[in-house]
């Protein structure tokens, strides 16, 4: 036998085969049905906004890596995921330059400043959206009507608005189910909500496709089911209690589940592994906290929607939840913080 | 037999790697031929190296003592072959460093009959006599750790042993040696149990077997002598159930205290193949000169379970079984805790439970390491409920004191479950091994300076 060179590695010599970039890639795949429905419902505008945020996020990550003389990390798909998620939380007729701005903030201030993937405290897409909400409150609450007949060939003037010019508000803009309820007291039917025949952000309107994406990820073990289940269950129970107390004033629990960004947030935003607790028990606490905050903000807050702030607050609580939930080490009575 | 209560007790967390046992589990143990020259290193066990008592040019019988134990934690070594001692010189070992070794050239036409000593039987011997006989037979734990068995079996003054637990778990993927031993050497196992009961004073024997070896459990239950207090317990398949602590938790529902030994909760555990070896060797006063090894892996042509003489050169073993393509990695032991071989000139030792061979095309590409995304997979895998994610981060900052004091690093027994599940491919166990050795070195330095 001739002399051969052997590879040396330390045990274990087997790996499970799941990889961080694969997880990120599959989350992007799982978002695609809901995103595609958004394009179907809102047309070209929605497509352009999502493309702007995706390209913006990936480019920002690449340039920031280059700037700090590190190897580019766009290959782990997390920047693309952040960009796509941000685009899906924006109104379909959102000005492109604002969307791009938001994606730069998402990656730059939401992720890179903390040290990149794995170190961010908050969900980067929501940091970008919170920035946009604070900076452009009118544009982010101006809703384009779904299923407009000219949606596949007509690009809204607001989308192509020139930077730092106040965009002209389209005459045909409509209300979302949440704003219709909050400001006009109008209820949307459950059927329209579940299938997405409503106005809203591009990616949040079809609960059905969001749930399908979530089930796919759960089945692939790339999403911890405890998070969406605990958030949705908490929101359902709390709003159900309120509805039973006063059905004329409060929406039904089904409305709470399917209206606005709760589905998208519970399935794709709160489940960001980096910003959620590490133990199973911690995840339940985190989910219940977010579900409770959503109901409180929606029912008593000044805004119609509360999912974004609820998740950001949940992210902020995560290190503390990890400190509180302790596990007992085998063979000891000592409990260590996670 | 407890076939249906299999979900009664289990340890927390753990993982389910692909078993890969189907190819060899049905293959009966085959005698391996003698290599022309066998090379026997003196460091085959944990403890002091054995002291060579033969000289170059001397003729030895198969089974004759060639090295004696150097101290209490040490065992003698017997010649695996009848032949002539050709060389006494340092030889390569699995650890990478060299150790003194004896090279024996086999007699070409010898019958290779085994040298017999004076046997003892369990009924008329005292526990001390049996312990001495176990040490004299050169027996070490055959599961892979190679710790001298007589040391492990000695119940310390003031402690008592209630349960003797025999480890037939074999949770490492690919390995099927214990499975074959249980199917083919049942009588030796029960003979061994008689010695072990006498030594430990245990009242009850539990044989723990994973449910992927139900045939072995049923077979042992069938041939079990009526006078022995043996219970066979089938437990669900889960890695690392074969570790001593996890096995005790799975079978008895008790935990071994941190930093303690099983005897602290009145338990002694012994590997099933070691038990069979005791039962086979002690009645004849023989020494251990061969062992069962699973040779498998995608690159091996003649996969199987072989009875291989100790000291057989690895190169000879690989030549005999045949290899597809070019060898890329060879592991001694299982894929989860086994050691990668750096030199094909090493030889089979008492602790070798498996030889796994992979060629280039069967190995995953070098996996890229990503930052920890706090997915919690390692937290859900760790059988002793440590937080590998946190420990990994602390290791990067070299916060060894924090790792040891606040996060119980020293309880980690390096099963590798965390590294296995990590999607970011962070070599967590490697970090922990390094951190533990750094910590130990620091403690040793501290002690030295305070004595001076």
What does this structure look like?
The complex is a heterodimer of chains A (338) and B (452). Chain A has 338 residues and is mainly α. Chain A has a single domain (20-337), classed as Ammonium transporter fold (Orthogonal Bundle), CATH 1.10.3430. Chain A is built from 13 helices and two strands; from the N terminus they run αααααααααααααββ. In chain A, α4 (96-110) crosses α5 (124-135), α5 packs across α13 (307-324) and α8 runs parallel beside α11. Chain B is an alpha/beta fold and 452 residues long. Chain B folds into two domains: 1-34 and 125-363, NADH-ubiquinone oxidoreductase 51kDa subunit (Rossmann fold, 3-Layer(aba) Sandwich), CATH 3.40.50.11540; 388-451, no CATH class. Chain B is built from 13 helices and 17 strands. The radius of gyration of chain B is 22 Å and the shape is globular. At the A-B interface, α1 of A face α9, β15, β16, α12 and α13 of B.
What's this model, at a glance?
The complex is a heterodimer of chains A (338) and B (452). By secondary structure, chain A is mainly α.
């Amino acid at each position: 036998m001739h002399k051969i060179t052997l590879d040396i590695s330390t045990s274990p010599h087997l790996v499970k085969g799941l990889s961080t970039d694969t997880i990120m890639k599959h989350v992007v795949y799982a978002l695609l049905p809901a995103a595609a429905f958004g394009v179907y419902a809102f047309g070209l505008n929605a497509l352009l906004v999502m493309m702007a945020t995706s390209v913006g996020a990936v480019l920002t990550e690449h340039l920031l890596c280059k700037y700090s003389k590190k190897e580019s990390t766009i290959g782990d798909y997390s920047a693309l995921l952040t960009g796509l998620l941000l685009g899906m939380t924006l109104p379909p007729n959102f000005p492109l330059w604002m969307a791009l701005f938001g994606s730069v903030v998402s990656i730059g201030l939401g992720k890179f400043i903390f040290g990149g993937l794995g170190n961010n405290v908050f969900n980067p897409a929501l940091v970008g959206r919170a920035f946009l909400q604070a900076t452009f409150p009118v544009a982010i609450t101006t809703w384009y009507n779904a299923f407009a007949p000219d949606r596949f060939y007509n690009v809204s003037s607001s989308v192509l608005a020139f930077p730092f010019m106040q965009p002209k508000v389209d005459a045909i803009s409509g209300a979302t189910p949440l704003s219709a309820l909050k400001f006009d007291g109008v209820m949307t039917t459950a059927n329209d909500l579940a299938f997405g025949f409503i106005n809203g952000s591009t990616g949040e309107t079809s609960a059905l496709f969001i749930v399908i994406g979530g089930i796919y990820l759960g089945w692939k073990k790339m999403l911890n089911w405890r998070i969406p289940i605990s958030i949705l269950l908490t929101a359902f129970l709390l709003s159900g209690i309120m509805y039973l107390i006063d059905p004329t004033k409060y929406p039904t629990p089904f409305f709470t589940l399917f209206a606005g960004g709760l589905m998208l947030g519970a399935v794709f935003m709160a489940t960001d592994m980096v910003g959620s607790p590490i133990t199973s028990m911690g995840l339940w606490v985190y989910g219940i906290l977010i579900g409770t905050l959503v109901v409180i903000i929606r029912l008593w807050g000044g805004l119609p929607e509360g999912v974004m702030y609820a998740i950001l607050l949940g992210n902020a609580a995560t290190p503390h939840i990890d400190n509180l939930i302790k596990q007992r080490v085998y063979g000891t009575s000592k409990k260590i913080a996670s | 037999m407890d076939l249906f209560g299999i979900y009664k007790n289990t340890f927390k967390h753990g993982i389910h790697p692909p078993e890969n046992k189907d190819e060899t589990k049905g293959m009966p143990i085959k005698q391996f031929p003698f290599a022309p020259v066998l090379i026997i290193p003196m460091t085959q066990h944990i403890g002091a190296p054995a002291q060579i008592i033969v000289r170059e040019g001397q003729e030895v019988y198969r089974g004759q003592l060639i090295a004696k134990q150097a101290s209490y934690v040490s065992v003698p070594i017997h010649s695996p072959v009848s032949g002539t001692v050709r060389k006494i010189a340092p030889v390569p070992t699995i650890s990478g460093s060299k150790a003194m070794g004896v090279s024996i050239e086999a007699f070409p036409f010898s019958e290779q009959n085994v040298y017999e000593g004076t046997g003892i039987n369990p009924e008329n011997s005292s526990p001390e006599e049996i312990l001495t006989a176990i040490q004299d037979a050169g027996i070490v734990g055959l599961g892979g750790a190679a710790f001298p068995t007589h040391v492990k079996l000695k119940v310390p003054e003031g402690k008592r042993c209630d349960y003797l637990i025999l480890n037939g778990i074999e949770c490492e993927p690919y390995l099927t040696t214990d499975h074959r031993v249980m199917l083919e050497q049942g009588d030796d196992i029960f003979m061994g149990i008689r010695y072990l009961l006498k030594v430990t004073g245990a009242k009850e024997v539990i044989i723990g077997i994973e449910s992927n070896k139900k045939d072995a459990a049923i077979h042992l239950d069938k041939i079990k002598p009526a006078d022995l207090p043996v219970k066979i317990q089938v437990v669900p398949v889960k890695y690392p159930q074969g570790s001593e602590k996890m096995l005790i938790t799975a079978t008895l529902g008790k935990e071994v205290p941190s930093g303690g030994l099983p005897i602290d909760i009145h338990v002694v555990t012994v590997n099933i193949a070691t038990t069979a070896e005791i039962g086979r060797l002690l009645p004849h006063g023989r020494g251990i000169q061969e062992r069962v090894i699973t040779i498998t892996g995608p690159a091996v042509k003649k996969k199987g379970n072989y009875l291989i003489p100790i000291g057989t050169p690895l190169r000879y073993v690989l030549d005999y079984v045949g290899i597809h393509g070019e060898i890329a990695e060879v592991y001694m032991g299982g894929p989860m805790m086994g050691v990668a071989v750096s030199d094909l000139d090493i030889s089979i030792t008492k602790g070798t439970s498996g030889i796994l061979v992979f060629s280039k095309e069967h190995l995953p590409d070098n996996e890229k390491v990503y930052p920890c995304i706090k997915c919690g997979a390692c937290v859900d895998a760790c059988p002793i409920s440590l937080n590998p994610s946190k420990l990994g981060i602390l290791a990067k900052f070299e916060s060894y004191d924090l790792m040891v004091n606040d996060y119980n690093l020293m309880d980690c027994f390096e099963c590798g479950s965390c590294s296995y599940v990590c999607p970011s491919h962070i070599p967590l166990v490697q970090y922990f091994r390094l951190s533990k050795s750094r910590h130990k070195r620091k403690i040793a330095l501290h002690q030295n300076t305070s004595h001076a």
